[in-house]
Amino acid sequence: AREYATTMAEELQAKLGSGYPSFVKPMTQSHVTGGFWLGLPLPFCRKHLPKRDERLTLKDEQGVESETLYLALKNGLSAGWRGFAIQHNLVDGDCLVFELINRTTFKVYIIRQSSYYER
């Protein structure tokens, strides 16, 4: 189911065709429970994200926005990520596509690992 979600996310990313930078992020236990820390790909951070800590907006497919704190030295999302993960019922095995639609806003597409069982 995890592999299926990742494959579907990669296919979605390939179809976006928006020209905006994006990356695929499979969810693990530490992303969705307990510490709620979301490390982002280092090359993406270096190329596209602010060089210092800054608030970023996560916008889901319905247009609902959540604010989170990007920690530049740690290349990840901290404060606010927990709320987004809980609000969207993210679980270990889900896979997200992050599309940077402006300097501080990600559009986030969620591919559920449970969709493997619904096909």
TrEMBL record:
Q: Which residues form the signal peptide?
A: none
- CDD domains, per database record: B3_DNA
Q: Where is the TF-B3 domain?
A: 23-114
Does the record's keyword annotation contain Transcription regulation? Answer: yes
> Where does the record place it?
Nucleus
Its GO CC terms are: nucleus
Which key words are in the record?
Answer: DNA-binding, Nucleus, Transcription, Transcription regulation
Source organism, top-level taxon: Eukaryota
Chief location bin? nucleus
The GO molecular function terms of this record are:
DNA binding
Quote the protein name from its UniProt record.
TF-B3 domain-containing protein
